[in-house]
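Minutes, project check-in
Item: structure for the 802-residue chain
Input as provided by the requester:
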Amino acid sequence: MLLGTMAFELAYAFCFLLMQLPFSTIAQTDGKNISLGSSLTALDNKSFWASPSGEFAFGFQEIGKYGFLLAIWFNKVPERTIVWSANGDNLVQKGSTVELTSAGQFRLSDITTGKQIWVASSYGTGVVYAAMLDTGNFVLANRNSIHLWASFDQPTDTILPTQTLSQNSRLFARYTASNYSRGRFQLTLESDGNLRLYTTLFPLDSINSPYWSTNIKDSGVELMFNQSGSIYLTASNGSILTMVSDEIVSMQDFYQRATLDYDGVFRHYVCPKSTGSSVRSWNMAWSTLSSKPKDICMSIFQDKCVGACGFNSICTQDQGPICQCPYGYTDMDPADVWKGCKPNFVPQSCGEASSPEAHLFYFAEMQNTNWPVTEYNYFQPATEDWCRQACLADCFCAVANYRDGQCWLKGSPLFNGRIEPGSGIKALIKVRNESSTLISGDRDSKKKDNSTLILVGSLLLSSSGFLNILLLLITYLLVSRMYCGRAKVIQPYLVMNLKYFTYEELEEATNGFKEELGRGAFATVFKGVLRSSDNGKYVAVKRLDNMVKDNELEFKAEISSIGKTNHKNLVQLLGFCNEGQHRILVYEFMSNGSLAGFLFGESMPNWYKRRQIALGIARGLLYLHEDCSSQIIHCDIKPQNILLDDSIGARISDFGLAKLLKMDQTHTTTGIRGTKGYVAPEWFKNFPITLKVDVYSYGILLLGIVCCRRNFEQQAEDEDQMILADWAYDCYEQKKLHLLFKNDDEAMEDMKTMEKYVMIAIWCIQEDPSLRPTTKKLTLMLEGTVEVSIPPNPSSFTSSIM
């Protein structure tokens, strides 16, 4: 025993010494030497030097039509993700060169000016070769293979595994996704040892106050990104002070990077290297493992910058942030959200002290919308009506925020704009009448066209009294039609936060409702593309076929309730159509289909992804149940109603539609809302329907996610296995959970976590609703914050599928 202990300690010590060696010493044998006199010319995206494995490349990347960027990128990832660049602020033109001169200088020159754009500053002399290493590090080295310059020591917005940041090192976010010049955010490892994220006083690099920090007392000396994928701060003795990202992912199977993105979020990304069994179900694209901060919209709260988005805009956290304009405003530049939003109307004039224009304005309401630190006046106590009148009478007021007797008057430009779910703050946005749907130029043009038509008619028909009478009649009809048409356009916009579409627009967007994505008992979904003014964005157009059509106010109320929801685990409602018998909802398009297709396909999805999906669904339900402005019971949680976004993130769809459907137009023929197998027992017993019906459905869904099978399998190997809920409880009670996962190697290696998830699911499907956890507790159990106790026998599951 003693010899074994000593051997282990010696092996551990040897491994520790190896880890302390400089990365450059270990990595330099991987390099493929680039000799003096070598050069690259910017001609296309094929001009590069690759690392020995071909996984990284150094060379020129063409950035749109603007020029060429000298960069390092992942060369085997389809999108060739750039991780370092030399000239983001000064792109060079076609024909420009980068050269390792005979004197050992490495420089980039622009062909149009002949000037040197960038040079790698190597300390001292003696460079004899360059190399692109398999770590993603590009180096200049001397005869002894000592690195005189390394891209790892001059990072831009990204760090890679084996790379470190020392004190006072910085990462700068790029300006936009396609603009590699320095942007508005900075990550710095401070001299006090804390890692902090800052906004900058753009276009200067000067910093504002931090919006995220590690907040440690001990002084960190390095930010490490180790070969296991963990990112952490270390002390001078090498001990770990705090974890920045503790997600452990195999470097053998995944590419990894940590990037300060242009939106100000520091994200840890992974991308599978192949489609082998160890990474099955992962898309060959980057997925986010962790992010700091988690909600940047709520993190930036400063009085010297625009916030997470531009002036007058609103930040919404949705895999994001997403920047949007408030009602009555449009983007100054759709390609650059930092330029902010501008009003579609002429602001209120301050020409008269009595503000005679006050009667020309009205208020558009947006719930849970706020622009903190923008107010120039504050009143308490005040009624909402008094607050409205105070803003109308004040020509400087652009928005009034109101909540619980408090009134804030805010002037333009507005900054720090964001959606604050559950805050109860109402934004009253002052908008000029007649400008809610038409830009003034278009409106004046239409007025002019109608006036011209009437004038020409008068001249042609004024030759007789009879014709004059006819003229008056025609004039009346034209004017009436003009105002009636305008009223029809303006009226739907009373539903805030949503865009109104005409039936003609949606018919055009879907090419005559041609490409069907799915069909249910109450709706058909089509794929559509919005017109060019919306940047050709794909949408899902849901045409409601069977629903309550008599109550116009109820329809608007429900659509308004759905439109006010905003969460990264919900499918976002973008707009609607309510024209005659046509009632259509327009949602964002989810590129990866439904959870049903993901779970029940030919290959078994990755266990880590399944866990993330389960947690995402729970968080979305928690938002619907507790955090959105009006509580929503979904009533139909099932795999087909969980959609997957570009990052395989879970998005709940069809929430809020229950009140729009007839009682006899659901997926069953019993008048029960929901789908067989997922319906809570209380639907059959005339018990009160509460939030717990969604918890029950989630429990059945969670079992399907854990076991990768449907809730009912007619072709099961054994009759006892046909109903998943029955079988899962039997396996749990008999301590034979391995039978549930016999074809899932990952599950077998993580049996403790799998058992916890099965226990949570059993709690959720208790026949007695009072025994089921709340959505809050359910989420905390999944996150590991709350212990999961031993669940009782749920009694009976069969009633829910018979």
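Outcome recorded: Residues 465-490 form the longest helix (26 residues).
No further action items on this chain.
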